[in-house]
Amino acid sequence: MNSEHTLLSIIAQDPEWTRKHASQLSPVLFATESNRYIFEAVTECGTEWDMTTITNTLRRRGKLDDVGGPSGVSALFDDFPVMSMDAHHLATVRDATTLRRALQCHQAALDRLNLALTVGTNDAAALLAEIR
After folding, report:
1. What is the C-alpha separation between 30 and 87, in angstroms, rounded?
2. pLDDT in tens, 12-38
3. Closest listed residue to residue 39, CA positions, set 62, 60, 10
4. N or C, fewer C-beta in 10 Å, the chain?
5. In this structure, are residues 42 and 49 in contact, taking their beta carbons and an 8 Å threshold?
6. Helical axes 124-131 vs 86-119, angle rounded to 10°
7. Buried b / exposed e along 105-119 (16+ C-beta atoms within 10 A)
8. What is the DSSP letter of 8?
9. pTM
């Protein structure tokens, strides 16, 4: 089980923990689209949720099949995450998000540099400054 799934399990099972850490949580933390859908459903449920409300929210949004159906949601409630590891899992997921964003920025820079090499550029120094 990876940290993203474990963090989502903590979120799904412990509304109080989720409220306490709400400022650190966001859909962008979840690289896996299905996990992002579940997180969004949890936040849409308001202040209290359970397996049924999350499942119904996903069904209403047309995303239930995308998360593996009701069994995909129930899998989060089948796990028993070690709550003393919550900070570790949150930090791991946040670090992975930072790395993904850096990779996306570098990929965009690479694409711009390749385009400049292909079509040419009048000012390589300005392009490099803009990329930085």
Report:
1. 16
2. 999 999 999 999 999 999 999 999 999
3. 10
4. C
5. yes
6. 170
7. eeeeeeeeeeebeee
8. H
9. 0.77
